[in-house]
Amino acid sequence: MPFGLLTEILFCLTSASAFSVKQFMKDGQTQILNEPIPGESPLELCDSLQPQILTLDSLKMDPVPPERGENLTIIASGTLSAPVEEGAYVDVDVDYGLIKLIHATYDLCEELPNVDMKCPIKKGHYELNKKVEIPSQVPPGQYKVVARAYTKDDELITCLTGEVVFPPYGWSMLESLKNSVSLLMY
Ligand SMILES: *[C@@H]1O[C@H](CO)[C@@H](O)[C@H](O)[C@H]1NC(C)=O
């Protein structure tokens, strides 16, 4: 399931990173300002005017951009200024092109084993090194993700946002398809 994968990536990030999103009201419109995260990844901090429990020192992904059918390595380091305990949750929004694909809330502690961590997490410095395989069946297109993690007391742990575009299936695949079709016709 491609969307399971996307959320797993998000959990990797939310569990090991600190984000900030800037939000302010202007003429009745909420604006979100993002800040870059040190390291190379398609993600940014969001809600950056708001205090956050996680400070993400660095976030690296390889390859950038992520590729279908390849392993994606995620290396993150960050510091938690408060513990994360049972009851923590994460709100995830994923847009696929113009379509709202996912709008859901997940139990953060239930997802942490995906990244070899478990609740409670004490405050302190953490490093994460995780490899996830991106299935080659992920549909091509543009995916936009916003994930906000909160403690059980609704304090913002981190806000992460990012965009990944998986290109249309490559020429090599079309060529091999054409070749098999012409083989069938002879
Ligand atoms: C991804 O990593 C797994 C486990 O290390 C390995 O078995 C698999 O062959 C790798 N996939 C690719 C496409 O490199």
Please specify the SSE layout and strand pairing.
Elements: H1 2-16, E1 22-26, E2 29-33, E3 35-36, E4 43-45, E5 54-62, E6 71-80, E7 89-96, E8 99-107, H2 108-111, E9 124-133, E10 141-150, E11 156-166, H3 171-185
Antiparallel strand pairs: 1-2, 3-4, 4-11, 5-6, 6-9, 7-8, 7-10, 10-11
Distance between the termini: 37 Å
Shape: elongated
- Strand percent estimate: 35-45%
- Number of DSSP strand runs: 11
Helix content estimate: 10-25%
Total helical elements: 3
Structural class: alpha+beta
* Distinct bound molecules: 2-acetamido-2-deoxy-beta-D-glucopyranose
List keywords for this structure.
six-stranded antiparallel sheet, 44% strand, 186 residues, Ganglioside M2 Activator Protein, Chain: A, alpha+beta, three-stranded antiparallel sheet, elongated, binds 2-acetamido-2-deoxy-beta-D-glucopyranose, 3 helices
Structural features, described:
With 186 residues, the protein is an alpha+beta fold. The chain has a single domain, classed as Distorted Sandwich (Ganglioside M2 Activator Protein, Chain: A). The protein is 18% helix and 44% strand. It has 3 helices and 11 strands, in the order αββββββββαβββα. The chain has helices at residues 2-16, 108-111, 171-185; strands at 22-26, 29-33, 35-36, 43-45, 54-62, 71-80, 89-96, 99-107, 124-133, 141-150, 156-166. The strands form 3 sheets. A 6-stranded antiparallel sheet has the order 3-4-11-10-7-8. The radius of gyration is 18 Å and the shape is elongated. The model is unreliable at 15-29 (pLDDT under 50). Bound molecules: 2-acetamido-2-deoxy-beta-D-glucopyranose.
